[in-house]
Amino acid sequence: MEWTPYRIFLALLLVVTGSINTLSTKWADRMTSVGLDGESRPFVHPFLQASTMFLGEVACLATFKLLYWYYSRRQDGSETREKTTSGNTNFRALILLPPAMCDMIATSTMYIGLNLTYASSFQMLRGSVIVFVAILSIAFLDKKLRGVEWAGILFVISGLTVVGMSDFASGSSQEHKDTNSIITGDLLIVAAQIITAFQMVYEEKFVKDKDIPALMAVGYEGFWGFVVLGSLLVPFYWIPAYPPFSANPRNVLEDTPDGLVQLYNNGFLLLAMLGTFVSIAFFNYAGVSVTKEMSATTRMVLDSVRTLVIWIVCLGLRWQDFNYLQVVGFALLLVGMCLYNNVFLEPTFKRIVGYMNRRAGMTGRHARLEEEEAGVLDNHEADKATTS
């Protein structure tokens, strides 16, 4: 695969905006602000945050429509040649409703989990999606896994286990997490990956071959997600919920007016939400573009790089203390991802074996040549003796 400047740009955009998205969301979770009742409390509004994320994805659809209109005005077919607008635009938007619903449920669940555990663990535990995608691919896509892929899954499971163990040893003078909170948060994040796996398998089965432009696909998924979740915010305003799942004065699942007041009363909190809004739009565009331009494998490997960036930033900001178990867990996860996606390890092994075989072949040929030369010389000497 050739790394063109455009592909390098997409890779950097994916890593940077993906890291900003997780870190800005966690930053918002760590802040406090004055709510409707005049009391200052932590910002615990996962469904409002998820709605903001979907609104950011809707911005991708608006951008696509604007670019398509601009290119089509040239009347030279630019809209079918430019990377941002080329592809199939004649499809039923409802085909993107199921993956949008999976995304809505998974994202809301992950945001609840992120509020209960550490940002680096949140990102590492998202690697469990490989396990569930593999299982569902066998069940629904009739995929057969090779031995190296099963080995990758085992490495991922081992890494997830180590990451879970590290959470109980992690801590920070700025952020204290009790054991029950960590367990609940980690389990919610892993459960969300099961739903994300359903989304990926659905997209591979029904959406991938339709060649939908990246901005358009992200935009329609964001549109359906925002419409449905925005509607659900109304009943959520009346459904009872208690800490740690709720921190609003009314003790309900989501108090949107209280969340909006908290945003208004804290400029940094508003900045963090804007960071989520902008970064998710660019991140999803970059993710879908990397999948179309390169492969889903490349996208998952770049996502593991994002995990490393988030972990380093969390350590630098003292959001949690260093724990060697997380290094071990991340290493196991990375090896598992590389094995499962046939990246680096297996190709490198094949190159080494090929090189050794070539060397052995060259050595064998060299020996045969020496033997043939020795035979020629012996024959030549024998001929000389006979002539004499």
Automatic annotation (TrEMBL):
The keyword RNA-binding does not apply. It is found in: Membrane. Keywords: Membrane, Sugar transport, Transmembrane, Transmembrane helix, Transport. Its main location: membrane. It holds the Pfam family Nuc_sug_transp. This is Solute carrier family 35 member F6. GO terms for cellular component: Golgi membrane. It comes from Thrips palmi. Belongs to the nucleotide-sugar transporter family. SLC35A subfamily. The chain crosses the membrane at residues 46-70, 91-112, 124-141, 148-169, 181-202, 214-239, 268-288, 300-319, 325-345.
